[in-house]
Amino acid sequence: MEEIGADLQPYEQNTTLPSDPELLEQIRRGNEPAFRELVNRHGRYLFGVAHSMCGNNADAEDVVQETLIAALNGNFRGESSVRTWLVAILVKQAAMQRRKKRPERLAGDEQIKSAAAASDAKMDLSVMLAALSPEHRQVIVLRELEKMSYQQIAEALDLPQGTVESRLHRAREELRKRFEGYQP
To answer: Is 157 part of a structural domain of the chain?
Structure first.
């Protein structure tokens, strides 16, 4: 009789866990425990990035779920780390979700303007990020919150590194101008 959980042995009892690319290969062969391990390794991180980009838990969960589905169907070529590849997918999924929800965005823009006008009001990070364009929000989140290198961001966004650097500069300038009187 086969023991329950016997298919988890490589992940629970073996001290040398498979690398991320090895997990992806196992996932392609239908190994569900390998998928669970990939989610355990990267799920929380992906959720943090998604939440920073989307601004709420529900949308972040949707984006992470769509990212993982896309990763299952995607083709990792090994040109970057698996985490960077997953973030690249996540950024695209977040952009697609944003396009779907565009009519709802107008009310959010009005809230941002009123929050910025009240310079003595406390603003949290999500309000400040929501004030940025999607392109600027992406680079700020990946660089300042996720501590990704310029090269990693360039790979995740499929942009030249110089473009990442200039977007980051413009995003920081935009934050400085919009929230000039704000003191945390």
So the answer is: no
pTM, to two decimals: 0.64
Return all residues near 84 (Cβ < 8 A) that are at least 6 apart: 148, 152, 155, 156
Domain count along the chain:
1
Q: What is the CATH number of the domain that holds 45?
A: 1.10.1740.10
Contact 42, 63 (CB under 8 A): no
The sign one gets for the Cα dihedral 141, 153, 102, 39 is negative
Domain of 71, in residue numbers = 12-100
Other C-beta atoms within 10 Å of 163: how many? 14
Q: Are 159 and 84 in contact (CB under 8 A)?
A: no
- 68: Cβ–Cβ under 8 A, 6 or more apart, which residues? 39, 43, 46
Report pLDDT digits (tens) over 50-97.
988 888 899 999 999 999 999 988 889 888 899 999 999 999 898 888
> Is residue 178 situated within a structural domain?
no
Report, in angstroms and rounded to the nearest whole number, the Rg of the chain calculated over CA atoms.
Answer: 19
Give just the sign of the alpha carbon dihedral 56, 133, 119, 114: negative
Tell me, yes or no, whether 152 lies in a domain: no
**Calpha distance 14→133 (Å, rounded):** 46
